[in-house]
Design brief:
single chain; about 700 residues; alpha+beta; Calcium-transporting ATPase, cytoplasmic transduction domain A; Rossmann fold; six-stranded antiparallel β-sheet; 21 helices; 22 strands; elongated
């Protein structure tokens, strides 16, 4: 079990060859300063590097204080607005005097928006949400001076006030979404204690070379990948794998950077530089995940860039064309149509779409990361959600990729007069085989010794060990000649061997030339592989296929045991690509195909599939580099979890799209026939945005 836990930690996850800037993921994108991040309309570029860890914490403190300041500003503005309404009601002021009264709360809450609009115009980015809000509210302040028009001063202030409330909700939601991923950033170590010249020195992890010895004390993070050379402890691996159960390690175990040492002091000899360590590669993957937009996000972005100028043009036409065509004259009807145009501007702002959709996908990425599923970008959410065919590699994916004793079959009785025992037991047969393989470095020898762990300490005498090429090993165990090998060895010593009904690698044993039995060794199937296939079927995945280079009988047994729909055996890497091309051509239109693998030979197939899923714990660097999704704990059941998360994320994103479009269309219709008000327009814009953002936050909650 300890070995299983050990291998579940990712080692060598090469993901992206880019500079490490972990704090980039935590930047506020202007949020901390109260700016409304309607991303397709206006983008804040953070040009300052965030490589300093202390700066990161300072940045968080600044963001927190800015949020408090924004709440205070909203509260003060609300009080001033209420006071202005009371003054208007009980004091007989002229229109220009009322304007001055309302300008106080308006400028207090709206200066930031007006400034953003001006900066956008200066940069040539005119058509953003700040421009729309500024244009609408300034128009509302001015409309009262037109002949026959009523003042809209409270409405103008309220639009700006509610706009700020929407920004606050958005900022909070984005912070929650980023926090869902930023927990991975906490695994980055600040320092490393390295032994040099007989002393322990504290240095940055980047300064430690391969082969140096580092000391990790209880409570400290392991800064670099390496091998334990002294000490034993328990490691918290939750940030890497999503698993809460601590992993025990001792001398000789490999450990991954980013794990937290819980108990004993460990001395670790490093095997990778910091740039190539597990923690660095995970950080790079997470940072780059936000750079790949889904098809839904890309559409919304393109839509907003075209939509916003059209809206402004339509509002101008609505304000000027009907009065020009009116039989009552331009001056008498202009105020009415200007009011409708202002409503049109407020309602038409696409903030709910361009904010909530990316926020939904980001929340989905964060929720997945908390389960040890790292998706390299929201673009792969679309493909994951539409998976209809899942193709598996076998070794290292559905199986552990390591030999283990599966069955021991001794002969019921030996021939009369032989030196073999009359009724050899399973324990005795395994005992003899393990002793003969004592000095072997072959995986089969390791499997036999693992199945009989007290082999090295039971005091049995093993002499005259001879390895016979292509056959097996012969040795003298406690005065008896024991041969362990294949059928050819049995024939060579004259033992009457027979085959086994089970599939796997059959190891035959002969004692003093007499057949004593055989041992079945197989690649162990992962405990949750069968459940993974069943879970995919429950999700409606139509086809499951296994591609393997193993023998036909082995592939058939594994496929049958796990309930896999079909399999293809004896494949070379080029054959796997060919088979995948055939499966891609045969899959239904609108469905995507996912390939799950772990080895170097799987890299071409992972790249060719619609979605490549790599096993991160045991997986090779090449496979993880080529994959679109990385399972950090090598559990096949996480595939179904990833599909569920993707489908739920897309469902929430679609809900937000239809919510925004439906409500805006209804209120635009009311405004066109004269039944709309600015109060209703505010709800259609900022209110819908708040609802969409709150709905998007549901993507953070991961369901089984």
């Amino acid at each position: 079990m300890r070995e299983q836990q050990q291998r579940a930690i990712p080692q060598g996850n090469e993901l992206q060859a880019q500079p490490i800037q972990s704090e980039n993921l935590l930047k506020s994108d202007g949020k901390a300063h109260g700016s409304h991040s309607c991303h397709s309309c206006h983008t804040h570029e953070d040009t300052e590097g965030h490589n300093n860890h202390e700066h990161k914490h300072e940045h968080h403190r600044h963001a927190h204080s800015s949020t408090k300041r924004q709440i205070t500003l909203i509260a003060v503005t609300a009080v001033l607005l209420a006071a202005a309404v009371l003054i208007e009601r009980y004091c007989a002021l002229q229109t220009w005097q009322l304007l001055l009264v309302y300008l106080v709360p308006y400028l207090l809450i709206g200066t930031g928006t007006l400034k953003e609009a001006a900066e956008g115009i200066a940069r040539g980015n005119i058509f953003n949400e700040h421009f729309l809000m500024s244009l609408a509210t300034i128009g509302a302040l001015c409309i009262g001076f037109l002949p026959g028009a009523e003042t809209e001063f409270p409405e103008a202030v309220f639009v700006m006030l509610f706009f700020a409330v929407g920004e606050l909700f958005e900022s909070y939601a984005e912070g929650r979404s980023r926090d869902s991923i930023s927990h991975l950033m906490e695994i980055r170590p600040d320092t490393a204690e390295v032994e040099r010249g007989g002393q322990t020195r504290t240095v940055t992890p980047e300064e430690v070379s391969i082969g140096e010895v580092i000391v990790v004390r209880p409570g400290g993070k392991i800064p670099l990948d390496g091998t334990v050379i002294e000490g034993s402890s328990s490691l918290n691996t939750v940030a890497l794998t999503g698993e809460s159960l601590p992993r025990d390690v001792e001398k000789g175990d490999d450990v991954a950077s980013g794990c937290i040492n819980l108990s004993g002091v460990l001395r670790i000899r490093t095997t990778k530089t910091f740039g190539e360590s597990t923690v660095s590669k995970i950080i790079r993957l997470v940072e780059n995940a936000d750079s790949r937009k889904s098809r839904s996000e890309s559409f919304i972005t393109r839509f907003a860039r075209i939509y916003t100028p059209i809206v402004v043009s339509a509002a101008l036409l609505l304000a000027f064309v009907p009065p020009l065509l009116s039989g009552n004259g331009f001056a008498s009807s202009f105020a009415t149509w200007l009011h409708r145009a202002l409503i049109f501007l407020v309602v038409s702002c696409p903030c709910a779409l361009v904010i909530s959709v990316p926020l939904t996908f980001f929340g989905g990425l964060g929720g997945a990361s908390r389960r040890g599923i790292l998706i390299k970008g929201s673009s792969f959410m679309d493909s994951l959600a539409n998976v209809g065919t899942v193709v598996f590699d076998k070794t290292g994916t559905l199986t552990r990729g390591e030999f283990a004793v599966e069955a021991v079959h001794p002969e019921a009785a030996a021939k009369p007069g032989s030196a073999a025992p009359a009724a050899i037991t399973e324990h005795e047969l395994l005992h003899l085989a393990a002793h003969v393989e004592h000095f072997s470095t072959h995986p089969i020898g390791e499997a036999l010794r693992a199945a009989f762990p007290n082999e090295a300490t039971d005091g049995c005498s093993v002499t005259d060990v001879e390895e016979i090429a292509g056959q097996g090993i012969r040795a003298n165990v406690e005065g008896r000649t024991v041969c362990v090998g294949n059928a050819r060895m049995m024939e060579a010593v004259g033992a009457a061997w027979h085959d086994c009904h089970r599939t796997g690698t059959i190891i035959h044993v002969a004692v003093e030339g007499q057949y004593a039995g055989h041992i079945v060794i197989n690649d162990r199937v992962k405990e949750d592989s069968a459940e993974a296939i069943a879970a995919l079927r429950r999700l409606g995945v139509r086809d499951t296929v296994m591609l393997t280079g193993d023998r036909e009988e082995t592939a058939r047994e594994v496929a049958s045991r796990l309930g896999i729909g079909s399999y293809r055996a004896g494949l070379l890497p080029a054959d796997k690509v060919r088979c995948l091309e055939e499966l891609l051509a045969a899959k239904p239109r609108g469905n995507s195909l996912a390939f799950v693998g772990d080895g170097i030979n799987d890299a071409p197939v992972l790249k060719r599939a619609d979605v490549g899923i790599a096993m991160g714990g045991l997986g090779s660097d090449a496979a993880i580099e080529a994959a679109d999704v990385v399972l950090m704990d090598d559990r096949p059941t996480k595939i179904a979890t990833a599909v569920s998360i993707a489908r739920r994320t897309l469902r929430i994103a679609r809900q937000n799209v239809w919510l925004a479009i439906g409500i805006k269309a209804a209120i635009l219709l009311l405004a066109a026939i004269g039944l709309g008000t600015l109060w209703l327009a505010v709800f259609a814009d900022v209110g819908v945005t708040v609802l969409a953002v709150l709905n998007a936050m549901r993507a953070l909650r991961v369901q089984e």
